[in-house]
Amino acid sequence: MTVKTISIKSIETQGMGTLSFFEAEKDVGFPIRRIYYIHGVPEGIQRGGHAHKKLSQILFCPYGSITILLDDGTEKASVLLDKPDKGLIVEHNMWRDMIWNQANSVLCVAASEYYDPSDYIRSHDEFLRYINK
Ligand code: T46
Questions:
Q1: pLDDT-based confidence at 133, cuts 50/70/90?
Q2: How far apart are CA 112 and CA 123, in angstroms?
Q3: Mutation probe of ligand 1 site: the residue of 33, 88, 98 with most atoms within 8 A of C-beta
């Protein structure tokens, strides 16, 4: 499986921290219609357990440490998001789980589509049937 990560552009300001940014289409290759973020999660919690039929997203963790488990139906991969400048592109037809390695880690997501519950596949058996049809 090819795991697509990007190094998010970051500008250090001496003594005043760092500003990181990316731009739709130019840096992430798709339009951005929605931003969401997951916070206040205790250590050890696993979320996700689904795939999307159409959605592309970039996931990044500006604070903390989160492991993203990917499964394309054939191969599996694990990606550690533990730096604010690391972005992971997750496209459609990819099963994902997210594990919080550290309490209060923040997962930020920029998504190509508006929220649509019908875009989710929440059964792994159904996911395998969907990608093999
Ligand atoms: C994904 C991973 C990385 C909304 O109402 N609007 C939204 O934009 C989103 C993303 C979710 N919701 C509702 C749906 C559920 O009632 O928020 C609740 C929690 O969503 P979910 O259980 O899907 O959360 P995660 O953390 O398992 O998955 C989320 C995204 O849903 C998913 O697209 O790829 O983060």
A1: confident
A2: 22
A3: 98
Domains, the chain, in order of start with CATH, read 4-131 (2.60.120.10)
Mapping DSSP onto H, E and C, the string for 73-99 reads CCCEEEEEECCCCEEEEECCCCEEEEE
To the nearest 10°, report the CA torsion of 12, 105, 98, 118.
-90
pLDDT digits (tens, 9 = 90+) for 113-128: 999 999 999 999 999 9
Q: How far is the CA of 87 from the centre of ligand 1 (A)?
A: 18
66 close to ligand 1 (CB < 6 Angstrom): no
For the whole model, what pTM was predicted?
Answer: 0.97
Report pLDDT for 55.
Answer: 98
CA distance 47 to 102: 14
